Amino acid sequence: MTELKTAVLGFLIIVFIASVTGFFVMWFTDVYDNSILEKLKLTYNSTAAEWWENPPINPLLKVHVFNYTNVDEFFEGKAPKLEVVDLGPYVFLETAGKTNVSFNNDGTITYKEKRSYQFLANQSNGMQFDKVVVPNIPMLTAISNYYDESFYKKMILNTALTGVKAKPFKVLPVDSFLWGYEDELLSLAQKFSFNPEVSFSKFGILMTRNGTSTETFTIYSGENDLKQLAVIKEMDGKSKMEMWTTDECNRVDGTDGSQFPPHLMDKKQTLYVFIKSLCRKFPLQYEKDVILFDGIPAWRYKAPLDVFSHPSINSDNQCFCDLGSASCPSSGLLNATMCSFGAPIYASFPHFYTGDKKLLETVDGLKPQQEKHETFADIHPRLAFPIDGASRFQINVQVKKTAYITGLEHFQDDQILPVIWLEVVPGEISEELRNMIYHSTFSANAIQLSFKYGSLFVCLASLALLTITCYFRTKKISKSILS
C-alpha cells in the first residue's frame, strides 16, 4: 500500500513538472507559433516552395487607359488644355510563376519571374480592340533624350520625325498599345543605329511585363533564418542598384509582396515591397484590423500618403531626385526614367492622388479619390502573406520641349501627361489555400488555447492534488511519531 501511495505521489510530481513546463512554453515562448511558421520555409520540394513557384491564385490586372478627347482642338489653339476620359478597366487574368529556379546551398533561391495574361471580356468595361488616343511615347522619349545633344543631331532627329510623320499622340487599339506594336520611329532608329541602346522596333506600355523577366532575383528561403524569409538578397547578382543618390535608396531590399518575414508582423513595423519597375523598395504601414472572407482576421497596411512627396515634405525622398541635375519632381511623382529604358516615365498614384494640385491643372478629366486610388494590402497576422488588397499605380510621360525640334509648341515645358493606371487585385483563391488559411487561423488558435489553458488547469489541479497528498502524508507521519 505504501509503495502505491509513493508511486501516486511520484506520478503527481511528474505531471506537475510537465504541466509547469507546458504552461511556461505555451504562455511565455513562441515555440507553438514557430512550429507553424516552420512550414512557411521555402525548402526544396516543400508545399510552401511549390506554392511560391506556382502560386495557387491568379491575380487580376485591371488597366485603365486615359483617352485624350480634344487633341485636334488643343493643337489648333481652340482648347486651353487637354482633356482625358478614364476608359476601362480592361481586365486580364494573370498567370504568374517562377522559372530557372535554383535552390542554393547557402539558404537562398535564384529565379526569374514569368507572367502571361488572358483578356477577360466579361469582367471588362470595353474591348481590347477599342481605339484610344494616347501619347506617342517613343517620339517623346527621342525628343527628351536629345535635349542636351548638338544642333546637328537635333536637326537629324527633327528630320526623322518629319519623315515618319510622327505626332505627339497616336490612335491605337488598346491591345496594341499595352502589349506591343511596330513603331515607325523605333524601326528607323534600329535600321540606322541612331541609338545603340534601341534593340527593338516594337513598343508596348506593358510589353516588358509579359513573358519571362530579364532580371534574375535571389531571395532568402528562410531555411537558415526565418526572419529573412522571402527577403530579396540580390537582383542580377547585385545587392545595390546605381539609380539613386544614396546607398540606402539603391539597396535591393524587401520582398516581392507575396510573402513577408513573420517576425515583421508588428503593427509598429514598416513592411517593404521591392518594385522592380520603379527601381525602389516601397513602404507599407499598418492602418487597422479588418475581417475578410470566412471571418478571417487581417491587418490592413497602406502606402504612406507622403511616399511620393517632394523632399521638402518627406526628406527621405531626397535620394530619388535626378542623379545628374539633383532636380526633384513635384509632389506625387517619382522619376522612373532610369528604370524605363530612358523614356521620361513618371510614376504616381492614379489620377495624381496625393499629388501636387498643379498636376491636375494641366489636364481636365482627373478626379482623385482615396477609395478608388489608394494602395493597400490585407495581410494575415500569423502567416504574413496578403490575402486581399489592391496595388494601384499610374504611368505618366513627361513632355520635354527641346530647341530646334518642332511639334511640342502647345505644351508646357516638362508637362506631365497621364497614360494609364493599373490595379492588381487577388483573383479567386484556390480551395486548398483557403482551407490552409482557415485552419491556420481558427484550428491553430483553438489548439493553442486548448494547450495554454489545459496546461494551466493541469498545473493547478496537480498542484492541488500534490498539496492534499503531502498534507495527509505529513499528518499520518506525525500521528505515527506521536503514537
Automatic annotation (TrEMBL):
<keyword id="KW-1003">Cell membrane</keyword>
<protein>
    <submittedName>
        <fullName>Lysosome membrane protein 2</fullName>
    </submittedName>
</protein>
<feature type="transmembrane region" description="Helical">
    <location>
        <begin position="7"/>
        <end position="28"/>
    </location>
</feature>
<feature type="transmembrane region" description="Helical">
    <location>
        <begin position="453"/>
        <end position="472"/>
    </location>
</feature>
<dbReference type="Pfam" id="PF01130">
    <property type="entry name" value="CD36"/>
</dbReference>
<keyword id="KW-0472">Membrane</keyword>
<keyword id="KW-1133">Transmembrane helix</keyword>
<dbReference type="InterPro" id="IPR002159">
    <property type="entry name" value="CD36_fam"/>
</dbReference>
<dbReference type="GO" id="GO:0005737">
    <property type="term" value="C:cytoplasm"/>
</dbReference>
<keyword id="KW-0325">Glycoprotein</keyword>
<comment type="function">
    <text>Plays an olfactory role that is not restricted to pheromone sensitivity.</text>
</comment>
<dbReference type="GO" id="GO:0005886">
    <property type="term" value="C:plasma membrane"/>
</dbReference>
<keyword id="KW-0812">Transmembrane</keyword>
<dbReference type="GO" id="GO:0005044">
    <property type="term" value="F:scavenger receptor activity"/>
</dbReference>
<comment type="similarity">
    <text>Belongs to the CD36 family.</text>
</comment>
